[in-house]
Every structure is written in structure tokens, then in C-alpha cells.
Design brief:
single chain, 304 residues, alpha+beta, elongated
């Protein structure tokens, strides 16, 4: 699927394996029995593409074949190692290349991930091959890694965690509560809980300003001015941190809200973005939160 590599070893192997009949014999002989049993080698087809990084191509090359596995599309990826010194971390690279092949498969419009079988062909000087071909052995705790990567990944579904439980989540409680309800609930209904959480020792000044910007941008309430006034008024003296109330006044909240309605959503987003930049937030984070183009945010930062 690629041009010949930089060594005669690479070139001769690829010249043979790029012929489907030779590849079919190679795979029929060398595939593990369990994998061979599910592969229909009559469907073998050479695919285009190269998954080896540019800086490793003097050490490795690869050939990718598609094949039907129990009627479903799959791939057999032969990685050719032609360096004199074997690589201890080759199995990690093989996993990366397999995932790259899976990604390309999804990009082609398929809904299901394909099985990609990585195969290492080795003919280096050291014999036999000295390293484990079980990629999990690269972890400090292989058995823990096996459990992690063969079971469902941990999921924090904030939408189903009860509010009273979230309220006990210390430094992330206010973040989780807001993110759970920001799309559905009127901010005014959350005022009591927000004041309680923001008045704890856990929220820093920067986090407070970030959360206020988040509520300004994505929160909703029929009493917007009243909500933010009440929030500022009911924060503890320590938590105002330089007078959040004064900060609201400086931002021209009431005028800003009315102006935002008149000018439209984009203008409102730009004003919020500018406030975020003034409070030290990064261009990348501001762009993500406001959904404005990063280049526009960067320009605002330069002009500030």
C-alpha cells in the first residue's frame, strides 16, 4: 500500500505481501487459529494508506489488508520491523496503528468499529524476538490495565446524580450542579443552592468569575438582572473577593443585558468573551465557551 522502504529487507517482503495470493498464504499459515477461523481469506483486498509515523519509517513499514470476518468488515495489519535492535514498545505502536485504521474506517461512513488484527513480522539480528507481544505488559500493573481496558469505562453521568448528593461533592459541587441544570432550569430556582456552594471555602476568585461568565453566557432566567444582583448581594464578604457587586456594576450588567437583546446574540457573546479575557481566561477556553471563532477571540485579546 506504500512505496518500498529504505532497506532491502523491507522492499522484498512488501513486494511479496502486496500480492493477494502470497498474502493469503502468509496469513493462512501465520494467523492465530481463532482469528483464522473467522476470516474469509477469499475476500482479502489490499488497502491504501500508511499508519507508520514518518520518523519511524526507516525502522518499520506496514501493509493493510481488508477482509471479511464473520461477514463483517475487518482488517489485517502487518507491521514489518526491519531494524537490528527490537523495540520494547512496539506493541504500543501496534495498538496506535490499529486505532488509526479503525478511525479511517469510521471516517468512511461505517457505524461499527472493525476488528483490526495487528501482526508483527520480525527478521532482526536478535533471535528469538525478546519482548512480550502483549501490549498490556507495558503497564506497571498489567492486570489492572487488563481490567480497565476490557470493562466499561468509568462514567460520571451528572444528569442522574441527585442534587443533594452533588451538594456534598466539595470543590466540584457547584460546577456539577450548574452543568447538570444549565440547559433546563431557571437560574432563579438554583439561587439558594448556588449561594450555599459559592460561600464555601472551596471556590476561588477565578472560579467564581468563570462560573458567573458561564451563567451569563448559557444560563437562562426571566429575572436575569434580579438573579445576578441577588447572587452578588448574598455572597459572603470573604467570597466577594474585591467586591463582586462592584464587578457587576463595572460590567454594566443592566445596560449590557438590554444592549445584548438589541444587538443580537453574537454581540452579546463578544461582550462576554471580552469580560472573560479581562479576567485572565485563555483564548482557547473563551472560544470554546462562547463558540466564537478562535481567531476572533485572539484578535480581541490583542486589541485589549
Amino acid at each position: 500500500m506504500a512505496t518500498a522502504g529504505t532497506t532491502p529487507h523491507d522492499a522484498v517482503f512488501k513486494q511479496f505481501l502486496m500480492h493477494p495470493d502470497a498474502a493469503r498464504d502468509f496469513l493462512d499459515i501465520h494467523l492465530p487459529a481463532e482469528i483464522r477461523a473467522i476470516c474469509d481469506l477469499t475476500t482479502l483486498r489490499l488497502e491504501s494508506g500508511n499508519f507508520v509515523e514518518e520518523n519511524l519509517r526507516e525502522h518499520y513499514s506496514d501493509i493493510l489488508y481488508s477482509v471479511k470476518m464473520q461477514g463483517e468488515p475487518g482488517y489485517l495489519h502487518v507491521l514489518i520491523e526491519h531494524q537490528s535492535t527490537p523495540s520494547k514498545k512496539i506493541t504500543f505502536r501496534m495498538v496506535r496503528y490499529a486505532i488509526a485504521a479503525m478511525h479511517r474506517h469510521l471516517e468512511a461512513g461505517f457505524e461499527k468499529l472493525p476488528l483490526v488484527v495487528p501482526i508483527l513480522f520480525y527478521q532482526g539480528k536478535a533471535s528469538p524476538y525478546p519482548y512480550s507481544m502483549r501490549w498490556l505488559d507495558l503497564f506497571a500493573s498489567p492486570e489492572l490495565a487488563k481490567r480497565l481496558y476490557s470493562e466499561p469505562f468509568p462514567l460520571v453521568d451528572i444528569t442522574v446524580i441527585p442534587d443533594d448528593q452533588i451538594m456534598q461533592h466539595r470543590r466540584v459541587a457547584v460546577l456539577e450542579l450548574l452543568q447538570k441544570h444549565i440547559r433546563q432550569r431557571d437560574l432563579m430556582q438554583m439561587l439558594e443552592d448556588l449561594v450555599t456552594l459559592l460561600n464555601t471555602e472551596y471556590t476561588t476568585e477565578n472560579q467564581l468569575i468563570t462560573l458567573v461568565n458561564y451563567m451569563l453566557l448559557l444560563g437562562h432566567t426571566d429575572q436575569e438582572t434580579l438573579f445576578f444582583r441577588e447572587l452578588a448581594k448574598r455572597l459572603s464578604k470573604e467570597k466577594k473577593l474585591g467586591s463582586l457587586g462592584q464587578w457587576f456594576e463595572d460590567q454594566g450588567m443592566e445596560k449590557g443585558i438590554q444592549k445584548g437583546i438589541q444587538e443580537g446574540e453574537d454581540a452579546a457573546r463578544q461582550r462576554v468573551a471580552l469580560r472573560m479575557l479581562k479576567n485572565g481566561m485563555s483564548v482557547e477556553l473563551v472560544a470554546e465557551m462562547t463558540e466564537l471563532p478562535p481567531e476572533a477571540i485572539a484578535k480581541m485579546a490583542d486589541e485589549r
